[in-house]
Amino acid sequence: MSISTPEMLAVLQPVHLFRLLKLPALQALAAQCEVHEFASGEVVAAAGAAANFLFIVASGRVALGAGAPGAQVLVENDYFGAQAAHPKGRHPAAAIPLEPTVLLALPAAALQKLQREHPSLQAALLVKRRTAAWLRRRRYAGWLRGNENVLLICRTHWAWLAGRVWQPALILVAALGAFWGLQQLSINGWPVLLPGGGLAALWMLLLYVDWLDDSYVVTDKRIISDQRLMLLYRTRTEVPLQRVRSVDLEQGFIEQLLDVGDVSARTLAGILHFPNIQAPQAVREIINELVQRAQSAQRKAHAQSLVQSVRVGIGWQTEPPVAQPPAPPKPQASLLRSLGALFSQLRPSFTEYAGNTVIWRKHPLVLLARTGPGLLGMLLCALLALLFQQPGMPASAYINGSLLLFSFGAFCWAWYYYADWHNDTYTLTPDRLIDMEKKPLLGSLIQRSAPLENLVNVQYSRPGFWASIFNYGSVTIETGGDTGDLDFKMVLDPLLVQQTILNRMELRQEQQQTAERERQRTEMVDWLKAYAQVTQPAQPPEQPGAPAH
């Protein structure tokens, strides 16, 4: 199969690797590409084979590393074989087409020459190679939805770690210096070294683990920021690609020297940051390409829907039946499942999901602080009861009754404040936010709400060191109505709460726009049907005695 130069340019030009190339350079690149055709199931490159080409998918689909961790499915304008940029590069995974596929193959020698002439291309290939390596080391399959592929993984640059590790390193050096000086004076220096050195080492370990855990992932459907602090907390925020309005880059002078920077994906609802990542220019170009693909696919789907509506309106085809989603399978009853459901009902729920409704409650520390006196009172009564059961201790009905009465009072205290905590909720429905405070029993009820259309801004804050460690904070929602601002105080994972609200705001706006387009489409179809009826030739009146048609 032969592909003309304009067709090759149409395949190469959208690829972020070649986007900065001028037309003569792009034409020269197309002249060096070979056209390779593969049948479904035919091996393009085996795992561990020499990478002799950079392959760009012109049509079809290619599976990389099928059945192995980090498997991917590449489509048109995707590429693989970035290892060909190195003279001894090898394919990390097998490449097998899933259907008849046409690939443009750029020889390794031409690729190596091209990256020497264009440093930006070298950075992009480095990002792709690192993505392939991280995909093999970490399993991201639990994150992915159906037919979703990881195309880019970014990590915070080591310069971020170096910029923060100097403080504990200074403490460690000071402790070692003090230990050495005391040893020279024949004074035991271990009391100085152990606490100082131990604190510095623990601090450095915490910074290293924090740096190692954070990752930023881009799939063919969304952008994901995953931030963790060991086992203390984990925050994952995401943005669908078609909602991204712009991708920004910020670099200072020193950052440009180190090729480090901040990349931000902006949407109508907020900003998703990739801070302090390596090769930020290449990362921005990759994200821009994927965003343009997603938005182009969305526009094509809308255009197809419009064409279908016109065909239905003029009577060329009937309205297609609405596909009904399959009914969810009924869960099988079992003793273990029943016990799990009972335990989940007894366990305090800090975040509840009921359909499209999300309910947040205050942080576990708030619950512990409120119910703590009652729980400690019950524990103290139980310990005293055990103590008075020991031989030689006074025992009487008065003491037992008093302990029982005090324990009942402590239980009532704990129950009341647990119910008070449980009744204070922050609720996000498909169309509004609700802040509710209700005292137990017949206590007062205060409820404030605001439609999502009235929300102006959503901000979050983690006030101080302990708030960052235990991942709690406040989310402030500015409204444009008379209800005033809503303040979600002491919530768990305030960043996730903020992103959930912002995403729901944007989803609500998209639903309203979709409903408006559907209304306009229905109106247009009605006009076309009326036009078709008017323009149809009138049937002649039947003559008396004429045979019926």
Describe the structure.
This protein has 549 residues and is α+β, with helices and mostly antiparallel strands. Among the domains are: 1-118, Sandwich (Jelly Rolls); 158-213; 346-503, Pleckstrin-homology domain (PH domain)/Phosphotyrosine-binding domain (PTB) (PH-domain like). It is 46% helix and 23% strand. It has 13 helices and 22 strands. The chain has helices at 5-12, 23-32, 108-117, 119-137, 158-184, 190-213, 253-258, 280-313, 335-346, 364-388, 397-423, 465-470, 494-535, and strands at residues 34-38, 53-59, 62-64, 72-74, 79-80, 95-97, 101-107, 150-154, 215-219, 222-229, 233-240, 246-250, 260-266, 271-278, 351-354, 357-360, 425-428, 432-438, 445-451, 455-461, 472-479, 486-492. The strands form 6 sheets. Strands 15-16-17-18-19 form a 5-stranded antiparallel β-sheet. A 4-stranded antiparallel β-sheet has the order 1-7-2-5. It has a 4-stranded antiparallel β-sheet with strand order 8-9-10-11. It is globular, with a radius of gyration of 32 Å. The model has no long low-confidence stretch (mean pLDDT 82).
